[in-house]
Amino acid sequence: MPLSSEEQQIVALVGDFVDKDVRPVVQDLEHSNTYPEQLIEQMKKLGVYGLGIPEPYGEFGVSTPCYALVAEELARGWMSLAGAFGGHSVVSKLLLRYGTDEQRERYLPRMATGELRATMALTEPSGGSDLQALRTTARLDGDSWVVNGSKTWITNARRSSLIALLVKTDPAAQPAHTGISILLVEPGPGFSVSKDLPKLGYKGVESCELHFDDFRAPVGAVLGTVPGKGFSQMMNGLEIGRIQVASRAVGVARAAYEDSLRYAQERETFGKQIWQHQSVGNYLADMATNVDAARLLTQRAAEVYDSGARSDLETGMAKLFASEMAAKVTLDAVRIHGGYGYSTEYDVERYFRDAPLMIVGEGTNEILRTVIAKQLVQRSKR
User: What's CA 175's distance to the chain center, in Å?
Assistant: First the structure.
């Protein structure tokens, strides 16, 4: 389904923001690992934080294909900017789909403006992708849930005032996923952010460890108020998360391809522009083809998601293909740039460092292949 004229204008507006405001400053911010406060404020004014939040809570609710293209544009400028609202978007979709009226009215209007920023906390130090084995617990005590445990690799943890926290509310439940809930928590006594984790790429935006030590959340903090539904709720939320990660991968790969195409026309060896050497020309042809293929897969996944149908197959395929594609395209960009591709004076080395995050983020690609295979078998039986 094509974008509306208004959605096309939104994507173009974000693209202009990337070209005029992001790309001129990204190297300094990246190399100093500086949080992009001014750029984030501009994103708020552009309405980026509310793109997934429709009326009556927000003003700029757009289709998921539009949302995906906006994420691509931001990642084309700096992948960290797309990450700065990735978890926020997942939480907004969780609230829209599963939240009570009171929960939606409390959080979504402020989330739409960016006044309130949200993140999700799933991963634990010993758990990784095995979410059913999580150890963070919430015990009901009077009118409160008492939370104990730790989370790691939580993006935007220091700047988020709302956390969609995956916990075990019934550790004895069988099967295990029926004892898992999502708590909507706000920082308070018993909650701490211990440190920012050092990273290969994805600079500027923090990824942290969180600790809960007898932290108390009100009994109504359970998403939708009914405990035990958190695992299936979060699995659905991760569908939009994987669309966003796939879009980031497309954006990073697109930037690497565009820089390579430009460089291949500027650089000359043996009396001709290097794109005329067959090996370099072949790289460019493959890069452009794969970027377009990944975008089409991502757009298909976005359309299926908007249809209301189960989309873990389509979102998994998009994230798998796009992230693996980005890793290859960014390496090929280094090859095309030669020694300059290894220099921090060029953006190419940043693309190469950022790309691996999409392979392991929002569910590792090894896990996604299992999800895809399972869905292929189930659908073939139907």
Answer: 29
In 114-229, where does DSSP find H-type helix?
Answer: none
**Please, are residues 76 and 254 in contact by the beta-carbon 8 Å criterion?**
yes
In the predicted model, is pLDDT for residue 75 greater than 90? yes
Paired strand residues for 151: 210
368 CB-contact burial (10 Å; exposed 0-12 / middle 13-18 / buried 19+):
buried
User: 């934080």: which residue's tokens?
Assistant: 49
The residue annotated as part of the active site, out of 206, 209, 349, 362, is 362
362 is catalytic: yes
Residue-level pLDDT at 131: 78
User: What H or E segment, with its residue span, contains residue 216?
Assistant: strand 207-218
| Tokens 């292929």 found at | 376
CA dist., res. 121 & res. 90, Å (int): 11
Whole-number percent of the chain with pLDDT over 90: 93
What type of residue sits at position 130? D
Q: What whole-number distance in Å separates Cα of residue 242 and Cα of residue 28? A: 29
What SS3 class is residue 189?
coil
**Does this model's pTM top 0.90?**
yes
